[in-house]
Specification:
mainly alpha; Transferase(Phosphotransferase), domain 1; two-stranded antiparallel sheet; 5 helices; globular; disordered C terminus; Kinase-like_dom_sf; Plant_Ser_Thr_Prot_Kinase; Protein kinase domain-containing protein
Amino acid sequence: RLTAKCDVYSFGVVLLELLSGRRAVDKTRVGAEQNLVDWAKPYLGDRRKLFRIMDIKLEGQYPQKGAYMVAILALQCISEAKVRPSMSEVLSALEQLPPPRDPASPSNSDPQVIYSPHVKSPMRPNSPHLKSHLRNNYDSPVNMSPRSPLPPHMKSPILKSPRGRCFSSQLVTSV
């Protein structure tokens, strides 16, 4: 059954992917390192150990406070379903993050704009459109109707594990 709590769990996994630079499931890794959540979870709540999961391509050039705040948010998102935040609460937590700095041009960067190499135009975290989209699409159970933001070929059933975690059926080998 698809729920808003599954969406929050999935968003937590995306946050972990962003922090670590790793995929959610990586069969090229050994043992517990294959599953990003299982590998990263022990480090998320400890400020001194967080560097162990951070993307090495960042070469330590990231705001430690912001990374820790995102790690705590990711940990909340991947927690048991009954204690996970709503997407509105996730959005509020994201809005509390320190503004990003563009290291290439610190004097010319707008602290209210997020620059990403994957997006052609800058994104504003406080955009009413972004807030509306997150609240309307992720604070209620997933809508598999034509209004759903994903095209049909990208939709996959979600399975619930005995531990209350949500998974894409493409990633689950046994439940």
